[in-house]
Amino acid sequence: MKKTTDAGNGQGTRKVEAKSSAAEGLKELFIDGLKDIVYAERALLKALPKMMNNASEPKLKAAIEDHIAVTEGQVQRLEQVFEILGESNRGKKCEAIEGLIKEGESIMEETEVGPVRDAGIIAASQKIEHYEIASYGTLAAFANTLGETEIVALLEATLAEEKEADALLTESAYNSINFEAAEEDEN
Ligand SMILES: [Fe+2]
Ligand SMILES: [Fe+2]
């Protein structure tokens, strides 16, 4: 009988072969995740000033400026985590954040300065915040499972800041920017 679908035995459904450097235990997976997020935070420290300079609405500008300062503290917290673990704080390239930052850059290129670009900057920033929230949520859970209580507290402090940043962005979107952006459509 002729097969109509490849599901279940196609290339894409095969188990992925692990690299020789693959993490063996949760601890290693945890450290890999920390290296990913420290890379992401450092990349954001370079990318956020451009977003701030491209924002027009003063509250949005201020929110991004504030988050740059908060991000510096988050990098320091992660460095503390590496110190507790006795690991180097060198990051490992995070493809996800590179992609999210690139998306933010293209949103800026594709919009005129003003409320529409602001709406685009909020959209891109919220995707970034959600990536961070997912990452820190997972890492805090891993730290908890590993019994690293001091690290749990550090990661949860950052997680709370990321959630706050996300809420602030939602607020600025609802408060004016999206409405003004919609008005631009009518003009
Ligand atoms: Fe962050
Ligand atoms: Fe953030």
From TrEMBL:
Matches recorded under Gene3D superfamilies: 1.20.1260.10
Pfam families reported in the protein's UniProt record: DUF892
InterPro entries for the chain: DUF892_YciF-like, Ferritin-like, Ferritin-like_SF, YciF
Entries under PANTHER family matching the protein: PROTEIN YCIF
Protein name stated in the entry: Ferritin-like domain-containing protein
Natural source organism: Marnyiella aurantia
Lineage: Bacteria, Pseudomonadati, Bacteroidota, Flavobacteriia, Flavobacteriales
